[in-house]
Amino acid sequence: MERQNAAKQASGKGTSRKARNYIILSVEVLLLVVMVGVLWFVTKFTDEEEGVKRVEISTEDIVINEGVKNEVVEKDSDSAEETKGPTYRTIALFGLDSTIGELTKGTRSDTIMVASINNETKEVRIMSVYRDTYLNLGNDTYNKCNAAYARGGAKQAISMLNMNLDLDITDFVAVGFKGVMDTVNAVGGVMIDVDEKELKHINDYQMCMAEDMKIDYVKVTETGYQKLNGLQAVAYCRIRYSGGDDYKRTERQREVLQAILEEAKNIDVATLTKLVDNVFADFYTSVDLKEIVTLLSDIGSYTLIDEGGFPTLEYRANATIGNNVGASIICTDLAAAVSEFHERFFGQEDYEVSEALTQISAQINTNTAPFLKN
User: Fold this and answer.
1) In terms of Cα–Cα distance, which of 228, 202, 231 is closest to 216?
2) Would you say 247 and 240 are in contact if contact means Cβ atoms under 8 Å apart?
3) Domains in the chain with CATH codes
4) How far is it, in rounded angstroms, from Cα 108 to Cα 95?
5) Which segments within 101-150 are labelled E, that is strand?
6) What tens digit of pLDDT does each residue of 254-304 get?
7) Half-sphere exposure of 76 (CA within 13 A, CB side)
8) Are 29 and 126 in contact (CB under 8 A)?
9) Predicted model pTM
């Protein structure tokens, strides 16, 4: 919060606490809107075979736990009859650990988000799944959840989310480091407050990514509130060694996204065209292109009302699971955590998890118990 306040003071743009909170909550859903918008412009201005990488996904390609419900069942107040409540559209968002544009598989997902859209009210909720969470990878093997995308691409990563969270996701959007880097550059850079602990790590990450991408980089030489270019901003997002681990890194990612939003507010047509030209090849999705246009035409009716991370503090612990898995986040009671998640994100009171998820929860407890005791 101090960092955000310092940023506001330095920019001279006063705003109310309510407005600041709304901006923070809106960042991730606006990122989705930006991603969808870019996809739409790509289909409008480029040939299909040269545009966005797209894959068809059917329910036969992925795992969905039997008994999963994506709608709320309500009792009629005047009778004992049950009536169906709103249904939800759920989309997976993956930010990939890729500097060279590999988006199909073989790359771990640094960022994993689930967007829940109430089809009736147009309310949107966003949840981040911490990448180091020890879960079923969608094929009854267990490891850090970000390994699912690397091993089986989007289909396995979606199966991982469905199996561990009792979801029925069939659509996703994925983007790599280059897409984020080009987006930051397209808006002219972002203003970020860099502290002393972060300074060294920014340059270390920059050096590694620049070597992989065969590009030059500019060192960040001072602390304080300053403009970062695309590579510097991505490097800042990746920091996890100056305290706070992945939880703090998630805050940095949100800070950069918020800064992108601030810069994008004054974007002109030329800059937008540049953004589209730079990033269109860096997206991979299953979303139907006609649906993208429909979403854009109705985007004004969507409102973000909640966001968070999974597992929540109440249900998580940290442990090192052998040499093959390493330092991980353990969901100490996956069944209870998922029940709470469904109530919060889908309005399903007293949600009863599927039998398959109950078994996964028990298996996680069995696998991790020896390491939690140490």
Assistant:
1) 231
2) no
3) 1-311 (3.40.630.190)
4) 9
5) 109-118, 123-129, 134-136, 142-144
6) 678 767 767 766 666 566 555 655 555 667 778 765 565 555 455 556 666
7) 6
8) yes
9) 0.73
